Amino acid sequence: MSEKSETLASLSHEERRYAPPEDLVAQANVTQATYDEAAADRLGFWEKAAERLEWGQRWDRVLDWDDPPFAKWFVGGTLNASYNCVDRHVEAGHGDRVAIHWVGEPEDDTRDITYAQLKDEVSQAANALSDMGVGKGDLVAIYMPMIPETAIAMLACARLGAIHTVVFGGFSSDALASRVLDCGAKVIVTSDGGYRRGAPSGLKPAVDEAVAKVAQEKPDLVTNVLVVRRTGQDVEWNDDLDVWWHDAVGGASTEHTPEQMDAEHPLFVMYTSGTTGKPKGILHTTGGYLTQTAYTHWATFDLKPETDVYWTAADIGWITGHSYIVYGPLANGTTSVMYEGTPDTPHKGRWWEIVEKYGVTILYCAPTAIRTFMKWGAEIPAEHDLSSLRVLGSVGEPINPEAYVWYRDTIGGGTAPVMDTWWQTETGGHMITPLPGVTHGKPGSAMTPFPGISAEVVDDEGTPVGNGEGGLLVITEPWPAMLRTLWGDDERFKETYWSRFADQGYYFAGDGAKKDEDGDLWLLGRVDDVMNVSGHRMSTTEIESALVSHPKVAEAAVVGAADETTGQAVCAFVILRESALAGGEEASDDLIQELRMHVQKEIGAIAKPRQVMVVPELPKTRSGKIMRRLLKDVAENREVGDVTTLADSTVMDLIKEGSSSGS
Ligand code: 6R9
């Protein structure tokens, strides 16, 4: 057996298969014919997808790839993203349809916003921003909790041709300041605070700090801070800069005519952390981005805008929120749920209460959430009627087969298919995913490239690997929602994504992947997370999935820690399921042995962890990605590194305590 197939063999143990539900197939938005059409004429296919939007001027050319890797899509076309997400639905007679069922964290704090109301508020916000001197090409930073005004501010920017950069509300004032400086934002939209775990937490103080830091370098950059009153907590006020949203926006006219933008006009910059160095400002433009997010949202989830109630349970400060809370769903005229808080406030059944109350039909979330619910136990969702759910989605990480099956059975009633969607901030929209009316689901596999997307798994030389083999994931042809560059840094853009396979002109995604015997794709995590144990390359994902398949384990994170004899050794951090803990199970030596042997049985002796540490939490980013670098610091007994991009920076203290007791 070659090294590659040896280390990747364990995935072929997964033999569960799920056919698409017959009633869904009977009226599916997308069928096999769509794949065939796209394969026959890729650009023609995307052109048809673009026709679902309303354009001012039609494009003359679908794709300009004359100067790779700088793509232009729908060249010569003009449109307004905000108009497409809001006004056109009102004009089509759907003004009374709810666009957003907003659910605040405090119970009974809700708002239903129709498309007509959304149009009024977006127009008002556009007028208010415009009065502050924000115009086409200006940058606006948005640092907000999950409230409707976040989406409204984004759409108001799009309406004016201003470029937004949303900074996750959990990030520090440093993170905000560096992003404001990097992109040159002149206005910051924020709120006094938001609700998190049952209590109001402040945002404005962090903005004040950030503004002061920015002023040290660029005194005249930030000219206004627009503040939504959400919690009513006291805030410091600077009369020169600060303006209340309810004054400026509330007092503005509801009439605003959106301007047509060039298809390639920048829509937003979203910062994403690089493994090293400063965050990268991913630039997305208007026409291609909106085409792909709207079309994939409609196709991947089989969306029926008249009847579905759609919920992406994620933060708008993550690309998933941009593409599948704001732009995709609204461009399709969807009725969505938007939830402000955490899943366990005030109780662990909050999500399921929301699903039941609003009759949610499509739910899209991250595997980390699913594993948390598994940990809490199936009896919690069982208390609610979840029968409205018909399609489920997963995003952000590989979904462990065990979590997939649990999601399908416990949340989806054993019938709702799971769409495991692989994509990135950089790709803008879905790239590899099953489609609910076409694909047979395999737990743990993202299956095949979306119609019109060309992806491959290649070896180090860029040669496609055969079925049953693993390698690196590349995208071989440009796609509409691709990032156009890194903000202000074309060189880093070329270097980061296009230099690895420059000869072939492939986009290097940075993920490892495997093609199974049927040629279906399995994502294996970031290439940087691959370990090398005694010369064997192993994916952290696979060992984690093996651990999670043990009935007592809810979550697992695996890192390769330096080891004198083997180069690297497998170190595992696990969170036990609540049922195991309730049974009095502790981090006993017996349990640790059992888990080590379990991995050996599932994958092989080479993967058996040197160390298993039982911990109460894992360090995660805003999108639920485990920050293995920090765990590596613990495993290698080092001072823990930078924690500023953690969703909860106190987690590392809990882990350090935990790791000292059980290893
Ligand atoms: C949308 C998003 C991108 C990275 C990506 C990959 C991982 C996302 C995945 C997945 C396996 C999936 N990832 N979805 N891995 N299966 N379905 O997450 O964007 O935050 O930029 O992260 O996330 O490693 O390269 P972003």
TrEMBL record:
<feature type="domain" description="AMP-dependent synthetase/ligase">
    <location>
        <begin position="92"/>
        <end position="479"/>
    </location>
</feature>
<dbReference type="GO" id="GO:0016207">
    <property type="term" value="F:4-coumarate-CoA ligase activity"/>
</dbReference>
<keyword id="KW-0547">Nucleotide-binding</keyword>
<dbReference type="InterPro" id="IPR045851">
    <property type="entry name" value="AMP-bd_C_sf"/>
</dbReference>
<dbReference type="InterPro" id="IPR032387">
    <property type="entry name" value="ACAS_N"/>
</dbReference>
<dbReference type="Pfam" id="PF16177">
    <property type="entry name" value="ACAS_N"/>
</dbReference>
<dbReference type="InterPro" id="IPR000873">
    <property type="entry name" value="AMP-dep_synth/lig_dom"/>
</dbReference>
<dbReference type="InterPro" id="IPR025110">
    <property type="entry name" value="AMP-bd_C"/>
</dbReference>
<dbReference type="GO" id="GO:0005524">
    <property type="term" value="F:ATP binding"/>
</dbReference>
<dbReference type="Pfam" id="PF13193">
    <property type="entry name" value="AMP-binding_C"/>
</dbReference>
<dbReference type="Pfam" id="PF00501">
    <property type="entry name" value="AMP-binding"/>
</dbReference>
<keyword id="KW-0436">Ligase</keyword>
<dbReference type="InterPro" id="IPR011904">
    <property type="entry name" value="Ac_CoA_lig"/>
</dbReference>
<comment type="similarity">
    <text>Belongs to the ATP-dependent AMP-binding enzyme family.</text>
</comment>
<keyword id="KW-0067">ATP-binding</keyword>
<dbReference type="GO" id="GO:0003987">
    <property type="term" value="F:acetate-CoA ligase activity"/>
</dbReference>
<dbReference type="InterPro" id="IPR042099">
    <property type="entry name" value="ANL_N_sf"/>
</dbReference>
<dbReference type="GO" id="GO:0019427">
    <property type="term" value="P:acetyl-CoA biosynthetic process from acetate"/>
</dbReference>
<dbReference type="GO" id="GO:0009698">
    <property type="term" value="P:phenylpropanoid metabolic process"/>
</dbReference>
<dbReference type="GO" id="GO:0016208">
    <property type="term" value="F:AMP binding"/>
</dbReference>
<feature type="domain" description="Acetyl-coenzyme A synthetase N-terminal">
    <location>
        <begin position="32"/>
        <end position="85"/>
    </location>
</feature>
<feature type="domain" description="AMP-binding enzyme C-terminal">
    <location>
        <begin position="542"/>
        <end position="625"/>
    </location>
</feature>
<protein>
    <recommendedName>
        <fullName>Acetate--CoA ligase</fullName>
    </recommendedName>
</protein>
<dbReference type="InterPro" id="IPR020845">
    <property type="entry name" value="AMP-binding_CS"/>
</dbReference>
<dbReference type="GO" id="GO:0106290">
    <property type="term" value="F:trans-cinnamate-CoA ligase activity"/>
</dbReference>
<dbReference type="GO" id="GO:0005829">
    <property type="term" value="C:cytosol"/>
</dbReference>
